[in-house]
Task: inverse folding
């Protein structure tokens, strides 16, 4: 059963054209994360939500925004994608209960910029 | 601050032979440690986790890892490699007290399995 679902799996957009990636979860987890992963690199955390509390990483570009309208859904908005934003974007969740909970990842959205 | 070192960027084994992927960590607190696997164009799948219980941890697909505090290591092993094990493997440390925002990834080890 899919527990963290990302749509679409592949997204192509044009340079400078806004794009939105979506993530939904059936785990009822408090915490949702967005990561950027470039080829042959580890995932890099962009931001996370604890419930509705938004936490931005210090080095996340302003071009990246996020919304979490309810527990199940979270969106990543890229306002003006540049060529350097081409990457795999991973959504993850964790329960937030206790300090040692693993994260559960979706299969990612691969973003290409033309 | 926490950090993770994966000593090999690429490991190549023959099918049916043992697998050893090395991980060393640095943490100011009693760490929680995880191994994740990532197949091409897929997300990360949890293989196993250490959270201060038994030092030898068994995971999915025949993998296991041993936590050695004196060596600050958490190496991943499997007795017999299968072709389907070819993937990228990430060792992760999370410090006690956080709920996940302190998820520190190692750089990853790519495992190739030769027929």
Result:
């Amino acid at each position: 059963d899919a527990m963290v679902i990302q749509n679409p799996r592949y997204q192509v957009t044009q340079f400078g054209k806004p794009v939105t990636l979506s993530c939904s979860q059936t785990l009822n987890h408090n915490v949702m994360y967005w990561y950027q992963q470039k080829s042959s690199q580890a995932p890099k955390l962009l931001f996370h939500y604890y419930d509705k509390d938004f936490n931005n990483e210090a080095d996340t570009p302003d071009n990246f925004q996020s919304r979490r309208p309810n527990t199940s859904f979270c969106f990543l908005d890229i306002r003006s994608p540049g060529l350097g934003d081409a990457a795999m974007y991973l959504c993850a969740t964790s329960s937030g209960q206790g300090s040692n909970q693993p994260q559960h990842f979706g299969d990612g959205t691969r973003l290409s910029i033309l | 601050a926490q950090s993770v070192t994966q000593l090999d960027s690429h490991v190549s084994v023959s099918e049916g032979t043992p697998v050893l992927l090395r991980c060393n960590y640095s943490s100011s607190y009693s760490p929680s440690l995880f191994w994740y696997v990532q197949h091409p164009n897929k997300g990360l799948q949890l293989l196993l986790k250490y959270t201060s219980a038994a030092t030898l941890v068994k995971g999915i697909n025949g993998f296991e890892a041993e936590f050695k505090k004196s060596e600050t290591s958490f190496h991943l092993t499997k007795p017999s490699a299968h072709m389907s094990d070819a993937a990228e493997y990430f060792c992760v440390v999370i410090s006690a007290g956080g709920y996940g925002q302190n998820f520190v990834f190692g750089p990853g080890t790519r495992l190739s399995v030769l027929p």
About this structure: DSSP finds no helices and eleven strands in chain A. The interface with chain B takes residues 4, 6, 30-31, 33, 40-43, 45, 48, 50, 55, 88, 90, 92, 94, 96-108, 110 of chain A (CB under 8 Å).
